[in-house]
Design brief:
The complex is a heterodimer of chains A (181) and B (177). By secondary structure, chain A is mostly helical. Helices cover 69% and strands 0% of the residues of chain A. Chain B is an alpha+beta fold. Classes of the chains: A mainly alpha (181), B alpha+beta (177). At the A-B interface, helix 2, helix 3, helix 5, helix 6 and helix 8 of A face helix 1 and helix 2 of B.
């Protein structure tokens, strides 16, 4: 069976046994999502690189720690990434309070500008809501996978996603932007 | 445009974002390094196991084996001349050779046979007549000049003869019927 058709869990097992190709395949399959999660959570490409590297270093150190009963490999990786991001926040205090956001022309005429504004609005969300929105709406994890990654009940994830979207809509409205949840 | 649409556009734009190749290079180097260390660790574990096994084998091969010591039953003839005293050999213990023991011990020997439970000294017979003693593992080399055989009664009622050096360390034991 080609490597790209092998499930994550099997790749991880092979990687534990020393199969470098399996580990490489797992890295290439999942690094993009981890990188984007860190980027969307922190807004920093440099931090996203660091987090991606830390996540897979942690995987190398603790490959045996994966427990399939507690969720998928993907959720496990996002859980590690989330811990790395939170550590980064504690170190750097990079979270941007909503009130301190610059005046962003959300969804303005320029596509890139509007997306940049959305990005900054997401960055301004409080961490619990931001991570829920990023995982479910941007990384397209299921609620269950997000719950596994965050270590909270699925209902909590639903609630945080809903409230996060509400906060974004309120923010857009306050900036006189046509936006409906 | 809804919030969901805005997030979808952001998702589309970010879909091309990936970690740069240097991250992959660093991660894969760490993976290889980890494998190498694991390999080294297995080698160390195997080496340690081999050394331990060798040490155990060596210990058991040099472990004192059963020694045969029989109390010398004195006779009137024996009282008149020194009895041959043989050292109790313990395994490959070098330097143990038959020695002569002081004559005064012969008198005590008979008393010891007649009156067990007393701390007594036994004369030992030549190797051919030794019997029943078991060397105490890991005990110091058997004393070649002087030793004592003490008969003791245990709480269970059993009795045993214990061979001890003058240093008080027990070298061999024999159950007494």
């Amino acid at each position: 069976m080609p490597l790209d058709q092998i499930p994550d869990a099997e790749l991880l097992k092979r990687a534990v046994r020393g199969d470098e190709l399996a580990f490489t395949e797992l890295y290439r399959r999942r690094q993009g999502g981890i990188f984007r999660f860190a980027l969307q959570m922190t807004g920093s490409q440099h931090v996203a690189e660091e987090v991606t590297q830390e996540v897979f270093m942690a995987v190398i150190r603790g490959m045996n720690a994966f427990d399939s009963a507690r969720g998928s490999v993907q959720a496990w990786l996002y859980g590690i990434a989330r811990n790395c991001v939170l550590r980064h926040f504690r170190r750097e205090r990079t979270a941007l309070p909503l009130g301190e956001m610059a005046d962003v022309g959300v969804l303005s005429s320029s596509r890139d500008d509007s997306i940049d504004a959305v990005r900054r609005a997401v960055l301004a969300l409080p961490e619990p809501f931001r991570e829920a929105v990023v995982l479910c709406d941007l990384q397209e994890l299921t609620y269950q996978e997000a719950a596994d990654a965050l270590g909270v009940p699925i209902g909590t994830v639903r609630s945080r996603v809903s409230r996060g979207r509400g906060m974004l809509a309120s923010f857009f409205r306050s900036r006189d932007v046509r936006c409906v949840v | 445009m809804s919030v969901l649409d805005a997030l979808a556009r952001m998702r589309e734009q970010d879909a091309r974002c990936e970690a740069p190749p240097r991250v992959e290079a660093a991660v894969l180097a760490a993976y290889r390094d980890g494998r190498r260390r694991t390999g080294n660790r297995w080698w160390l574990v195997a080496a340690a196991a081999a050394v331990t096994l060798f040490a155990l084998l060596w210990t058991f091969s040099t472990r004192p084996k059963e020694v045969a010591i029989a109390p010398h039953r004195t006779t009137p003839a024996a009282r008149s001349q020194p009895a041959p005293v043989a050292a109790v050999t313990a395994g490959r213990n070098p330097g143990i050779a038959p020695v002569r023991r002081r004559n005064r011990l012969l008198h005590v020997t008979r008393k010891a046979i007649q009156a067990p439970n007393r701390r007594t000294l036994y004369a030992l017979t030549p190797p051919a007549e030794r019997d029943g003693f078991v060397a105490v593992p890991y005990a110091p080399p058997f004393p070649t000049d002087e030793f004592e055989v003490v008969r003791v009664s245990l709480a269970t009622g059993a009795k045993a003869d214990v061979v001890a050096g003058v240093d008080g360390i027990v070298r061999a034991v024999r159950w007494v019927d």
